[in-house]
Amino acid sequence: MGRKLSFSHHHQIRLFLLVILSSLVYIIYLFAVPNFITSFKIELRHSYGSLVGHTDSTDGSEKHTPLQRNASPKYKFLRDENLQASRHLPDALIIGVKKSGTRALLEFIKLHPNVQAPSSEMHFFDKNYVRGLSWYRNQMPLTLEGQMTMEKTPSYFVTKRVPSRVKKMNPYVKLIVVVRDPVTRAISDYTQSSSKKPEYLRKSFADLFYINGTNVVNTRWGIVRIGLYARYLDTWLKYFPLSQFIFISGETLIVDPAAEMKRLQDFLGLKVIITEKHFYFNTTKGFPCLMKSETLASPHCLGKNKGRIHPKIDESILDRLTQFYRPFNLKFYQMTGIDFGW
């Protein structure tokens, strides 16, 4: 009888220890697993937030859930967790300058998993303002928590009524300005315009540059006027402090894109992800192109319209144009604190 009691006693102890161990495992499961899932969600939001789709809810509001039915485990986790995305007004705007590298900059920064932007120019603040902010918001891409929305329309920089409208939308918006030697920019703009406007083919650059055959520069010609960066910046600074601007060199963006992208990522408060490994130089086009990467399935160069061959302009006209822009360039250097060397 004593041995039976001893066996029963040991059995009860083992059973008691097993219950305690099971309880500990359950407690660990309750507290550790949800925290792991939460951190995993955050990681996925930052890394794969662009892979989301849209569904309409019955109450008329928008709800957005991930797609990717035949996806990797991480994408399936996104879908199964029913993470929702929404549309937001821009946190940052590329406001100019036309023919200075704004398209390249947008394509480069969109490599960052925390940046989402529409592919086309919205022209909201200069041409579509009457449509209202709700319309503008609906043109924006879907974003998840931790991602920022960006939009590019180069004509914003030179349109007088735009700064006040932008401030009404968001007084703390970050403003990105890509600038280039105004002489080169003007010729590039003329080259593009000549391919689109037949009337340009009937006149030379000199005919348009000078007023009625004189030596007076035609400042009413938009292609020349856009290069007066200091004048336009002066208007913007009446509404926003200089600290909310970053000025990107269009020349440096070509020869060292990684350097300018680091500056931009720092300015936007983003982790520096876009580096030298994302670029290669296309000698045929004379522009940097994007390497295959985590967010780009194959190497990518800008469209065929980029890198057009410029027409030959008489040296005397180039000298006159350089002289014309010099005081405005010096003023722009003073305002921005950057000597671009034009």
Automatic annotation (TrEMBL):
It comes from the Eukaryota. 3'-phosphoadenylyl sulfate binds at residues 99-103, 180, 188, 306-310. Residues 90-326 form the Sulfotransferase domain. GO terms for molecular function: [heparan sulfate]-glucosamine 3-sulfotransferase activity. Keywords: Disulfide bond, Glycoprotein, Membrane, Transferase, Transmembrane, Transmembrane helix. SUPFAM superfamilies: P-loop containing nucleoside triphosphate hydrolases. The keyword Disulfide bond applies. This is Heparan sulfate glucosamine 3-O-sulfotransferase 3A1 isoform X1. The gene is LOC103505162.
